[in-house]
Amino acid sequence: MQPNLSNLFTPTPLWLDAFFVVTTLLTLGMLYTAAHRVSVSGAVRVLVASLVWLTLLAVLAYRHFFQQLDAIPPHFVLAIGVPLLLIIGLVITTGGRAWTSQLPLPILTLLHTVRIPVELSLYGLYLYQQVPQLMTFEGRNYDILAGITAPVVAYYAFKQKRLAPRWLLLWNLLSVGLLLNIVVQAVLSTPLPFQQMGFEQPNVALLKMPYVWLPGFVVPTVLFSHIVAIGQLIQPILPGSVPSSPSRSSNSER
């Protein structure tokens, strides 16, 4: 079945573009704040690297690089592959693990509130025939639940200290599941050789500026926050590790 590409080059509303740009900058701001609590120099490197990457994605998107659907391998792979390789590098290297283990859990938890404006953006894109309904909270996307619960979880875990680490770990695991669900939906509805759904209204928005920032930056940042949090929370379970807790991370934030 051939996807409907009538909206592949249709421009999106300026107000919706601006809303998503602000959402991306909010994500970057929270990532920078978390890195700044570890070291100023590290935060500056995160900021510069992020801005360079976002600029590169923007330039490529404006040149319709990701809309060249006949390219092999698909150009879209670049947008998601580079940040994933970076995350893997931070996870498997000693220096990367040493840095991520110091990132404050309270900020990493609150970062997930950006998933609320992300889901609102996706709904707006659906209304303008840029993504299929299945990618919204009216379809098969329940990721907004993670965004709504994030401030509640952060409040009870770090402010009230009434949420045990195991429940914070469970919330992160469930939220990762919600994230992976929408990622699979988005990838399989993109008009690429492996498309499996959304043929009548395929996911063309993420091939454009500024929405290429969603798979290229926002989603990897959200995934990174979960991976770091899960790593910190399971560390006390591992043999020979030093016990830690959400309250300890909260104190380090202050």
Automatic annotation (TrEMBL):
The molecule here is called TIGR02206 family membrane protein
Record keywords: Membrane, Transmembrane, Transmembrane helix
Q: Where, by residue number, does the polypeptide cross the bilayer?
A: 14-34, 46-66, 72-93, 170-192, 212-234
